[in-house]
Structures are given as structure tokens and as C-alpha cells.
Amino acid sequence: QVQLVESGGGLVQPGGSLRLSCVTSGFTLNTYAIAWIRQAPGKEREGVSCISSSGNSTTYTDSAKGRFIISRDNAKNTVYLHMNTLNPEDTGIYFCVAPRVGRVTGLCPSRSSPVRLWLIGDYWGQGTQVTVSS
Fold first, then answer.
1. DSSP character for 15?
2. CA dihedral sign of residues 116, 122, 127, 131
3. Which of 3, 87, 93, 119 has a CB 3.0–4.6 Å from the CB of 127, allowing a cystine?
4. pLDDT tens for residues 70-116?
């Protein structure tokens, strides 16, 4: 059974930090890039960040670059998203996704790719809620 389980979300004040975790099982993690996707209330899903299967390459969309850091520990079957200087616009449900770019699963979509390409994944987690509010 394939599982991607996110954790680490919660309520944080503006300017605060959170670390999200995505623990995976049921598939070979080191053959897959992992992306973080979020959905704000009333809005469409959007890409946040992605890390290649080896961890050698990372990608950040404009909203995340400079504030968030993605990392992975394949030995622990876990991917992390460190989020810093959070603001209310970061509020939403955060999903981890095992993406597919055509026939390739180990690479990330580029930051300039259409949003829809960030949303193509073989496996999705259930999401964890992040709320940034005073």
C-alpha cells in the first residue's frame, strides 16, 4: 500500500516557522522526486517546491524561494519542507506528491512550467493544514 503521510502543520504567527515532514512507504522513494503542493482556502492548488530523487537538485516557485528549504533523507523515506518567515498568504493545505514528468519520475518540473505540470503525480498524501495568523 502506497502512503505519503504529511505532518508538522499547525497554527503559527506571521514571521514564524514550521517544518513539514512527508513520510513515505509502499514505493521506491529513491526513484521519485518529491514535490510540495499547497491549496489556499478558495484557491486552486499551486506548486511550492520540489526535490529530485537523488536530492541533487531543488526547485522553488516564486512564493517559496528564499524562505523555504526542501530536503530529503531517503534512508528514512522522508522529505522535509522547512518554512521560514511565514505570512498569512502561506495558509493552506500542504500536500507532498510523487510527481511524474512524462515518463520520468526522478526529476522535478521547472519553476517556469505551467501549474498543471506541477499537479501530475503518481501518488499524493492527504495533506497537513498550515494556518498563519495572529
1. T
2. negative
3. 93
4. 999 999 999 999 999 999 999 999 999 999 999 999 999 999 999 99
